């Protein structure tokens, strides 16, 4: 994932922005409704990307991955629509409590850019994706960085068309969605009224899109490490932020760990899960790695 990559991450101010004032208002609506549901995973299960993770002789990477993590951010579905049989295989290889969080195919978001021709493709995508059944988590739509507010009518139509039986998160990257206060407020309201989560992306080179505005009771967070020592302190900050949001009423945490060069995303995930377990008193499984002396990247 090259989005937001910088050459010298040590020069970036990674201070976490203050919450948008309406985030606490959203969370307060479900403050006393029980413990949060927490899913933490990587973006893919490919052996070449996740070095120092799979034991020698592993024959089925997904089956093993699903013994270590409780979810996957399914980036593979961005590139093509898989046959229904593939989804069924993925379903059968994973345990009962496992969740898939698939990205909507690029033909909808990047090639057709939510125009009229996008909808038959979306229908086909959702038909096969539904084969994940109870293991289907939030589906997410990532728009191109040059998809700006001039396309507002397309966004409104897409939101109105979206079938409500599927949970959705939307990610906008054009700076004007957030730098123009009027545009931002209209977007937040649209997502909020339709129970769509506002994807949060934490990446080094685009601190401007750390809007910290939740639009429903889901924190859908795509964390992109910079392959640098600062990756760990940034994750520490997220542990504190999620603890704060949980105290205020957050009930759904969906956190996905990337790196610009994926290399060893599971190692970052181990540290994050360990600290999250301690801070929130949860009991997420600690993934195993091949580092005998304990996981470290840098």
TrEMBL record:
Superkingdom as given in the UniProt entry: Bacteria
Pfam families listed in its UniProt record: DUF72
InterPro entries the record matches: DUF72, UPF0759_sf
UniProt-recorded name of the protein: DUF72 domain-containing protein
Top-level taxonomy: Bacteria, Pseudomonadati, Bacteroidota, Flavobacteriia, Flavobacteriales
